[in-house]
Amino acid sequence: MKPKLVIFGSGDIAQLAHHYFSTDSNYDVVAFTVDAGFLTKPDFCGLPVVAFEELVHRYSPDTHDIFVALSYSKLNEVRKEKYLAAKAWGYRLASYVSSRCTVLNAGKIGENCFILEDNTIQPFVTIGNNVTLWSGNHIGHHSTIHDHCFIASHVVISGGVEIDESCFIGVNATLRDHIKVGVKCVIGAGALVLADAEPEGVYMGQASERARVPSTRLRKI
User: Fold this and answer.
1) Domain 95-197, what architecture?
2) Nearest-5° Cα angle at 186, 100 to 17
């Protein structure tokens, strides 16, 4: 019999989590849960939605695991809060690791991780708890990603990088080898980070500007 899973959330990420766990894991998703103040409909994806405050009475932690399917809101603080609340109530936190990943780090992946397709995780990498790796990232050898981080798509993290807790790294960012990213850093889309990033730092890539020539005047396209 498959282990039973409840997903926290009722938005896009929760819908994606339902799809991935249902099609590419050993879990049987049986319900969703949200805070009572956000409970606006009785079902989602064809399954019941129950108030988080009542969850232990409806879906016991003795027989159900939970996955917190939330984004990087407030620098991952909301996801962290619900992750810790679920643990305090005795739930086991499920992780999803896509079968379409290349995972070579001997399974050093924590709880409540959401690791989507086409990630390459090289040997001697350590991934903490409550970490999201969206699709298509390269996590270089001997790197460490600490708890509660969110890594968007097509990020290149070179070898020996340490990323502290509660960081956000945007699409197409590149981190050179053997640097440290401090706690609660935001690395913007397309940023190139070549030295240590200070805690709570914001590092933004350069946005492309519109050319003065309109597209209708380009001769080679």
Assistant:
1) 3 Solenoid (2.160)
2) 35
